[in-house]
Specification:
The chain has one domain. 75% of the residues lie in helices and 3% in strands. It has a two-stranded antiparallel sheet. Strand 1 and strand 2 form a beta hairpin. Helix 2 runs antiparallel to helix 5. The longest helix is centred in the middle third of the chain and has 38 residues. The model has no long low-confidence stretch (mean pLDDT 87).
């Protein structure tokens, strides 16, 4: 790290973050000025999608049906809700239906929270990318993608929301994982996000070589080998690696948006769908720029199947 050596390490790291942010931005611009803009575009698209969600009527059918059931049972909406949320009444077909409708309403509430978490974790990841903290960004990406998987599962099975909201202890969390993890992964595979989830898990959730390779340096000196780990995860002699990963990260965000459209079929908006298409086109163009500027490296990646 550079900076004032009299400062504590954490203060120096904070100073270095500012330097790294400028350095990463200048390298993005030098590669293609559209690259940093793409990260801002993704952030703006999350805001646009939030407005699409707010304007949807996904809850209306469930609310209307609950009102109908309440009238049929000669109950107030409040009394029906209490019975539907309680245990028992499994022999009453209308109460069973009311429970299912309540599950849908609960699922929508949970989905709205998860969609905000998806946006927040993207912003955190994008910020750490500018700081050249690749591993931290991958950890945020893992949680972001996992939230997307939960969103898609909740769309398919609204009853999952009850189990998710009732997790209070570590054992509750393990039980939820045992029951639903495979189903979440199946949803991620269906929306082409499983490989991103696995990549992020492997490089950021566990201590593996993939967590260190972008910052480790080994110097085989005459007397002894010296191994150091840089705090910024940036190899100055291999900028193409970082740029390729940035484009992969953006491609993953494009798939996140497509998955959100699966989770919220009522929130489809022609303008937003067009922005997703334009994002896909931009990323493809940036990949072509990478091939033009680093043909040998890209050919090597292609031969390796990566």
């Amino acid at each position: 790290m550079s900076g004032d050596s009299s400062k504590p390490d954490i203060e120096r790291l904070l100073d270095t973050d500012e330097e790294n942010s400028k350095h990463s931005l200048s390298n993005m611009v030098a590669f293609d000025p559209r690259l940093p803009d793409a990260f801002d575009d993704v952030a703006a698209m999350f805001n646009t999608f939030g407005r699409c969600m707010d304007g949807s009527q996904d809850e209306r059918p469930a609310l209307d049906r609950l009102s109908e059931i309440a009238r049929e049972l000669n109950l107030s909406n409040e009394d029906l809700a209490q019975r539907a949320l309680g245990d028992g009444d499994e022999d009453d077909a209308l109460i069973v239906e009311a429970k299912a409708q309540m599950d849908r309403l609960r699922a929508r509430q949970v989905m709205d929270m998860l969609s905000l978490a998806v946006q927040r974790h993207y912003l955190w990841a994008a910020t750490d990318i500018r700081r050249l903290r690749r591993t931290a960004a991958m950890l945020y990406l893992r949680v972001e993608v996992e939230a997307v998987g939960l969103l898609c599962l909740l769309r398919k099975d609204p009853s999952v929301a009850k189990a998710w909201t009732h997790m209070k202890t570590e054992e509750d969390g393990r039980a939820f994982h045992r029951q639903y993890n495979r189903k979440v992964l199946e949803q991620l595979e269906a929306v082409e996000l499983l490989s991103a989830y696995n990549a992020a898990s492997g490089s950021a959730q566990h201590m593996r070589l993939a967590s260190l390779v972008h910052g480790v340096k080994v110097d085989d000196g005459r007397e002894r080998r010296v191994t150091t780990v840089n705090l910024p995860e940036w190899q100055r002699d291999r900028p193409h690696d970082f740029l390729n990963w940035l484009l992969w990260f953006l491609r993953t965000q494009e798939r996140v948006f497509r998955a959100l459209l699966v989770a919220y079929p009522d929130a489809h908006d022609p303008v937003f769908i067009e922005r997703v298409r334009l994002l896909e086109k931009l990323i493809s163009s940036l990949y072509q720029t990478l091939k033009d500027k680093f043909p040998a490296e890209c050919a090597q990646w292609a031969a390796m199947g990566s």
